[in-house]
Amino acid sequence: MRWDLLFDDLESQLDQEQRDEERALAIEEERLRLGRLTLRDRLTAIARSDSDGAGASVRIELHGGRTISLRPQVFGRDWVSGRSAAPSQLELQCVVPIAAIAAVLPSHSQLEPSLESVPEASARIAERIGLPFVLRDLCRRRTPVRLCTIDGEVHGTIDRVARDHLDLALHDADRPRRDNAVHGYRIVPFARLLVVDFR
User: What are phi and psi of 48, to 5 degrees?
Assistant: First the structure.
């Protein structure tokens, strides 16, 4: 009879050790998963967590302290694009380089969903496109833009996009790019870009 008690005790200890080991493995797997999350992944998860399908609005603080409200729609390799969500402004399309983000300011309800994993392999081509490609498209379409840089804002049309910078023809926001409307040129390194706004 004492042997039965001894074997029951040993079996219960082994079961407890196995449960502890499984719990430790699950905790370590979660740590590894969180360690692989990028800022882009968390923004994507917030955008996908919206229940009404309109796209969740998220507040983003940029370098220099400017804060924008954005409804993310498209995620590229190193940029996010969406509509400005500020009710006081005209709704503009924005392109924000991920490197320009100083902080994401999620609401309490957005914090937990931002930790959810996003699918590893994506068939969407936009997720492999870099910022220069998007800027070249705006250049090709001759779209008037407002460039917000670390140093301030300028209006104009992108004339050229190189590897790490762009050429901007400066003109008033309410005028199309014509030679007689251009009052200067600016070469802007991508590292200085915060937001590119356009309609």
Answer: -80, -15
CA distance 44 to 64: 24
Tokens in use for 195? Answer: 């937001």
Measured distance CA(156)–CA(144) in Å, rounded: 6
Mapped onto helix, strand or coil, the DSSP state of residue 126 is helix
Spatial neighbors of 57 by CB under 8 A, at least 6 apart, are 69, 70, 71, 85
161-164 CB contacts, 8 Å cutoff, 24+ apart? 161/132, 161/135, 161/136, 162/132, 163/132, 164/189, 164/190, 164/191
> With b meaning 16 or more CB within 10 Å and e meaning fewer, what string describes 67-101?
ebbbbbebbbeebbbbbbbeeeeeebbbbbbbebb
- CA atoms within a 13 Å half-sphere pointing along the CA-CB vector of 32: 6
CB 55 within 8 A of CB 43: no
Position with higher pLDDT, 11 vs 83: 83
Which residues have a Cβ under 8 Å from the Cβ of 46 and sit 6 or more positions away? Answer: 56, 58, 72, 104, 106, 110, 113, 114
**Each residue of 118-148: pLDDT tens digit?**
655 554 677 889 999 999 999 999 999 999 9
pTM (2 d.p.): 0.80
Let me know: does 59 contact 71? Beta carbons within 8 Å: no
| Residue ranges per structural domain of the chain | 1-36
Q: What are phi and psi of 8, to 5 degrees?
A: -60, -40
